[in-house]
Request: fold
Amino acid sequence: MVAQVSASTHDFGTMAERYDRWYATAEGAMYDRLERRTVARLLPSDGRGKEVLDVGCGTGHWARFFSERGFTVTGVDISPRMIRVAREKEIPRASFAIADAHELPFDSGRFNVAVAITTLEFVRDPQVVLREMIRCTRRPGGLVLVGVLNARARLNRRRKAAGKPPYKEARFFSPRELKAALAPLGETRVSAVALVPQARWLLPLAPLTEALGRWLHLPYGALLIARVRL
Reply:
């Protein structure tokens, strides 16, 4: 079995069965909607015949999204319990395996796209994971997509200040830090997305605040999404 403690700063297996409940809330559904919209713009428009590597796939939430867009998805996660939940969903064109993102068990250049969303914050060595993702992606023409929790977002500052797992152990990235980490790897674009009002009664206005934030290039969205073109 993969050595889980040495690879991840938190044992997400303890929350596998309840992880998806966040997306069933009005707040979680809104964040998900805005994040998916940005990821969709960065992906190839037609996923048919293309393979995605989903690193830190968790319960398969994003794998389902990629599958719905026509991609064949291979999801990996360090947590056996997360992988079990993902497999139980029986997502079309998706397979899942237990693996350490620091040593991905795939041939070089196998995938058209490699993705890690809310993964790098919780791994032992983000740079090693990034190098492994790059290695597994085809070049030229491949894409690497990375989504990380934004250190400048009010929501994430509150999470960190609360001092509770998994955010207690997480390393959040600022837009500048993420771009600095990715720029040596290829042509890089970083966007701050999910600029959602913190007052719940203002939640319906989130698409408007998101559009305004994108227009003004505000760096305060809850998630940073970066694309590296190889």
Q: What stands out?
A: The domain at 4-229 is CATH 3.40.50.150 (Rossmann fold).
